[in-house]
Amino acid sequence: MSVKKVLVVGLGLMGRGILQVCAQSGLEAYGYDMSEEAVRNATGFISKSLEKRVKKGKMTEDEKNSVLKNIKAVNSLEDAKDVDLAIEAVYEDINVKQDVFKKLDAVLQPNAIIASNTSALPATPLASVTKRPDKFMIIHFHQPPTVMRLIELVKAIQTSDETAATAMEFCKAINKDPVQINVDCPGFLTNRTMIPLLNEVIYCIYEGVSSKEDIDLAFKSGFNWPMGPVTLCDFIGLDTLLHIMEDLHHRRGGDKFIPCPLLSNMVAAGYLGHKSGRGFYDYSK
Ligand SMILES: NC(=O)c1ccc[n+]([C@@H]2O[C@H](COP(=O)([O-])OP(=O)(O)OC[C@H]3O[C@@H](n4cnc5c(N)ncnc54)[C@H](O)[C@@H]3O)[C@@H](O)[C@H]2O)c1
Q1: Would you call 217 helix, strand, or coil by DSSP?
Q2: Terminus-to-terminus CA distance in the chain, angstroms?
């Protein structure tokens, strides 16, 4: 099956970017969020992002308009029931995600593929709440989806080879670099290795080892990272980071994934990073 119509469920940081990438690749791209404000923010964000591309000469006005025409914000999942692929990008909470999958399973055509953009949850418990576990995949984009080319592809143990092949073809069609993860393990490859590092960086701030600015400088100057790890935490979203860590700790055990108390406290205070205007850094201006 070749994917022509895509639905993105959850239009926060990740969903809005995935929607834009799909629309830019000429796909019919439907977007749904339970929050009307999130839908408004997402469509506004995409328009601004495309406008910037036009100003920089990376896209013509006509191209921008045809991308915008590909995007359809819908008020209910039923309004997108004919899509070939639905990608879920709601909160990193297994119960919220499973609820979305049950709803998608009930409305989509039987041959449609259901995918999750989860950061770290295993695929099999997500696939298992649907009546089509053979048509379930994790398609894990990286932030921001409009820029980052990596996608991790993870199969549930029930996923068919045909579904995996369609997902691979879809990723290539939207000009990404898909990496196949061979085992359905929590955290896949990137977050399994990156999350303990980011947690250790937060511990360094907590213990006063170095300032956040110097930590970022160290990684940029020492390892050629384009963005320091503290800034990266703010861009991921500290609530999302905490959810991922807690879930990885629960599923993998050991002490590698126990969240630093500073991270838990920042989330409790509502300092969620770039998206809330304040995280380790201040984005209010
Ligand atoms: N932030 C990152 O860097 C990053 C990177 C890769 C993957 N992810 C994963 O992508 C997913 C989304 O993360 P995010 O950072 O975009 O989160 P976010 O908080 O920015 O956005 C989540 C959106 O989902 C919506 N939502 C929640 N429940 C819903 C429901 N039942 N139905 C419809 N919409 C619902 C919310 O209104 C919100 O707009 C998570 O699973 C996360 O782990 C995040």
Answers
A1: helix
A2: 47
In this structure, the answer to whether residues 159 and 204 fall within a common structural domain is: no
Could you confirm whether 211 is annotated as catalytic?
A: no
Q: Which tokens go with 73?
A: 């914000």
User: Of the residues 148, 181, 214, which one is the last residue of a structural domain?
Assistant: 181
Is 119 annotated in the active site? yes
Does 126 contact ligand 1 (Cβ within 6 A)? no
Residue 86: φ, ψ to 5°: -115, 130
What is the mean pLDDT of each successive set of 10 residues along the chain, which is 285 residues long? 96 98 98 97 97 96 97 98 98 96 98 97 98 98 96 98 98 98 96 97 98 98 98 97 96 95 98 97 94
| Ligand 1 atom nearest 240 alpha carbon | 43
Q: From the CA of 30, how far away is ligand 1's center (Å)?
A: 16
pLDDT tens-place string over residues 77-98: 999 999 999 999 999 999 999 9
Q: Are residues 175 and 202 in the same domain?
A: no
- From the CB of residue 58, how many other CB atoms can be counted at a distance below 10 Å? 10
CATH number of domain containing 255: 1.10.1040.10
C-alpha of residue 164 to centroid of ligand 1, in Å: 23
Instruction: Specify if 103 maps to a domain.
Output: yes
- Please state the domain count of the chain: 2
Ligand 1 touching residue 11 (CB < 6 A): yes
> For the segment 191-205, what is each residue's pLDDT rounded down to a tens digit?
999 999 999 999 999
